[in-house]
From TrEMBL:
Keyword Signal carried by entry: yes
Main subcellular localisation: other
Compartments reported by the entry: Cell envelope
Species annotation: Streptomyces qinzhouensis
Entry's Gene Ontology cellular component terms: cell envelope
Keyword Signal among UniProt keywords: yes
One annotated GO molecular function: carbohydrate binding
Keywords of this entry: Signal
InterPro entries associated with the record: Peripla_BP_I (IPR028082), SBP_2_dom (IPR025997), TAT_signal (IPR006311)
PROSITE patterns: TAT
Lineage, uppermost ranks: Bacteria, Bacillati, Actinomycetota, Actinomycetes, Kitasatosporales
Protein's UniProt name: Substrate-binding domain-containing protein
Highest rank taxon of the organism: Bacteria
Annotated Periplasmic binding protein domain residues: 57-314
């Protein structure tokens, strides 16, 4: 795609200070004095909780018809409330790409200072991201990535491959001493790239454990009902296996129902995303669910931090570079009964 000319608000599109991915959640609310780094520019402005230039952030996401998507909206709203200098313009949200494009265009016409967009379809919304950037409105692309890096100033999202990789490694460690161990996989929506990445990460992790074979895979639809139906099919087809990797905790609620109805307790289950219901079950330790791999909806709060910093021409601290990174990939931590208390506050409903 041809490169477009730099917009007049170039200084906004390219922040004038540094950001640390690990500091995104805490760096913007800290009132502690910034520690000087001799390697960093002495005059580099860093965003903190103190009021600064008034900023209007437009937030456009898909319809919140899933626990994780609802948590995305909640994280964005709650984060924006922490800043007296931030006004959040949030759209109704839609899974219809044409409707979401229209919502983003409305925000562009309102001349918001910066946009945070979680597209229902990254490829389909790329052009409207480019439109915003050309209009001098920096775009923070949340999770589902646009087809062109010219359509966003910064991308922040989860690590789908890492989810599968860490789930596979956790299961591998639990079964590494069991000869001829068998695992099954309850995937998400098969035509989504994220589902393919989660499966690929899982398969790659299992390559490190030659004693383990994946004997079945079934795709569900990220809903409780589909999780129950597809898990029931897996249980009927596979009378003997040692572990289950379930891509999504919402469909995992249904999967657990099917497992309980079948009276099965002979395997361990690892979930995905980090729902509160999953963490509660892990903490209670009274079911086959022993772990979940995070896909943190707190990324929406971090996106608000980044948007505020970019619009104010600041960074959020931590690195020697002058610029906010072009992309930030969050880590998929494995939550077990040993660390669930630490992560439970982030669990979504």
């Amino acid at each position: 795609m041809p490169e477009f000319s730099a917009p007049s608000r170039r200084g906004i599109l390219f922040g004038t200070a540094a950001v640390s991915a690990g500091a995104l959640i805490t760096g913007c609310t800290s009132n502690e004095p910034e520690k000087k780094d001799s390697a960093a520019p002495a005059n580099a402005p860093v965003a903190d909780g103190a009021p600064g230039k008034a900023v209007t952030i437009g937030f456009a996401g898909p319809q919140a018809d899933h626990g994780w998507l609802n948590a995305i909206n909640d994280n964005a709203k709650q984060r924006a409330k922490k800043y007296s200098d931030v006004t959040l313009e949030i759209t109704e949200g839609s899974n219809d790409t044409a409707a979401q494009i229209g919502q983003v265009q409305t925000l562009i016409n309102k001349k918001v200072d910066v946009l945070v967009i979680l597209p229902a379809d990254g490829k389909a919304l790329t052009q409207v991201g480019l439109q915003a950037m050309k209009a001098g409105i920096p775009v923070i692309n949340l999770d589902r990535i646009f087809a062109s890096p010219q359509a966003y100033r910064c991308w922040i999202g989860g690590d789908n491959y890492g989810m599968g990789l860490n789930a596979g490694n956790y299961i591998g460690e639990q079964l590494k001493d069991k000869p001829d161990a068998k695992v099954v996989e309850l995937a998400g929506v098969d035509n989504l790239e994220l589902t393919k990445q989660r499966t690929q990460g899982f398969d790659d992790a299992l390559k490190n454990y030659p004693n383990i074979r994946k004997v079945a895979r079934q795709a569900a639809d990220f809903t409780v009902e589909s999780g129950q139906a597809k898990m029931a099919q897996l249980l009927q087809a596979q009378s003997d296996f040692d572990a289950l990797w379930n891509h999504d905790d919402d469909q995992g609620v249904g999967a657990l129902r099917a497992i309980a109805q079948a009276g099965r307790k002979d395997f361990i289950m690892v979930g995905g995303a980090g729902a509160k219901s999953a963490m509660d079950a892990i903490k209670a330790d009274n079911s086959v669910l022993k772990a979940t791999v995070l896909y943190p909806p707190t990324m929406a709060a971090s996106a608000i931090d980044i948007a505020r910093a970019v619009a104010q021409g600041k960074g959020v601290g931590g690195m020697a570079e002058m610029e906010i990174p072009a992309s930030i990939t969050l880590y998929s931590a494995v939550v077990t009964k040993d660390n669930v208390a630490q992560y439970l506050p982030t669990g979504f409903i």
